[in-house]
User: Fold 3-oxoacyl-[acyl-carrier protein] reductase from Paraburkholderia unamae.
Amino acid sequence: MPTSTLDLSQRVALVTGASRGIGRAIALSLAAAGAAVAVNYRQRESEADEVLARIASAGGRAIAVRADVSVAHEVEAMIDAVQSGLGAIDVLVNNAGTGLIRDIDELTEAEFDRTLAVNLKSAFLCTQAVLPGMRARRWGRIVNLSSAAARGGGLVGVHYNASKAGLEGLTRGYAARLGREGITVNAVAPALIDTEMVAPLKAANVVERMPVGRLGEPDEVAQAVLTVVGNAFITGQTIAVNGGVTFI
Assistant:
């Protein structure tokens, strides 16, 4: 489990889509920093349980909460479960996402709508749900997982581009309105991280085109998340974690 000098021992964190990949790495890193962590998942219960076991084995505290975070009533139930099980949510990481690869001639309206619901609407729903408590305590950290596709052509499709660009707009909008209340809102924008989502792209020789010559690791994204969680003067920013594939 990663180690950290950041002390979150009095904080509760919720990470959406945390049963695998980048979300899993973020949940483990927050737990290593001392936070009690709610591990959200939609389908992969056994993998979420493995994350809990890792956290527990290191002496941490965590619960798993199933919810489709693109559905309002499921988000409400999830927040209630987290608050009952761990306490008020101080750190929200909106990581849940979908990256269905579709060219413009294949993309359907249903796929476009689903991508925006999972990648963008979910962040809105979860943020709105945790804000009352954060504002009352005048402390909060919200981190949205964007992508290099928000500002570039990308390899997934225009639906993905739109969802991530919207997420960065949402980030800046909330940051501008919440900064004086002790709440920071930032985005972390990975690209070509070695996860299940990127596996179909490995055959496209993407590694050879990257300045660092390799795919990124989920832990490297988690490090960036912890950086903005630990800094009260960074807000409204997008932190690129992409091996130099694009420059923001």
Remarks:
- Residues 12-241 form a domain with the Rossmann fold fold (CATH 3.40.50.720).
